[in-house]
UniProtKB/TrEMBL annotation:
<keyword id="KW-0732">Signal</keyword>
<feature type="domain" description="Solute-binding protein family 3/N-terminal">
    <location>
        <begin position="40"/>
        <end position="270"/>
    </location>
</feature>
<dbReference type="Pfam" id="PF00497">
    <property type="entry name" value="SBP_bac_3"/>
</dbReference>
<protein>
    <submittedName>
        <fullName>Ectoine/hydroxyectoine ABC transporter substrate-binding protein EhuB</fullName>
    </submittedName>
</protein>
<feature type="signal peptide">
    <location>
        <begin position="1"/>
        <end position="28"/>
    </location>
</feature>
<dbReference type="InterPro" id="IPR006311">
    <property type="entry name" value="TAT_signal"/>
</dbReference>
<dbReference type="InterPro" id="IPR014337">
    <property type="entry name" value="Ectoine_EhuB"/>
</dbReference>
<dbReference type="InterPro" id="IPR001638">
    <property type="entry name" value="Solute-binding_3/MltF_N"/>
</dbReference>
Amino acid sequence: MTIRISRRTVLGLGAGLVVLSGAGIAHAETTLERAKKDGYIRVGFANEAPFGYATPDGKLTGEAPEVAKAVLAKMGIKQVDGVLTEFGSLIPGLKAGRFDIIAAGMFINPKRCAEINFSEPSYGIGAAMLVQKGNPKKVKDFSTFKDNADLKLAVMAGAVEGGEAKDAGVSQSQLVVLPDQSSLVAAVQSGRADAAALTALSIADMAKKADGVESTKPFGEVNGKSVKGHGGFGFRKEDTDLQKAFNAELKKFIGSPEHIALVEPFGFGKDYLPNKTTAELCSGK
């Protein structure tokens, strides 16, 4: 599958109204109706492996896009076009209509729920830190930075780790906010940051691919507070029919043998199945 904005995608942006002949009434075509009619839909992703990324030959893959493709196919939508977007621009891009679903493994939390709707979660996972080989600063988790104000922690713009760090008592002046994974790796390699924080699977993937760095042991709690995140798919507030139809198929799919086989190559599996609902996550439970 290639990542593109095709001519028909652009034309589809203008297909919001269908005139009912004879009645003289304009019917607003929903995103779901349009996608089913056209047989394709656009999803936003942030090139964050293993959640959602493009391969060197332009194939859209990762846990979230592959689950989305499987679920959408069961809904009769066979083609998925990917729109590469910086993580911090995913919600604005969705609301602006650049794409119709966020398929980036985005954590579900109350702040994001106030802006967009989410599917039920497709996974649950803890965090980890990327550090230089040998972990010279003995970084364990966010508490290491709380206890040493001289240390710098790299976080990705728009991701939850910046907020988690501050909740754990890390000063804003200690945070180095960067746009993507590659800049996080570079910051740790160069010493600009003493560590970078992301989900455990992302950090493991970054450590495997980059020189001179390694992952700390994953953690799910800091100072008695859970930092385990649950990721799902984002929808515009008005696209309730799309969200409900997607959720109906997603609930049947998650945890099935088909689902486990699909996501295991990305490091997910039975140990990463969600244990909270979207309602609980949106309420901050």
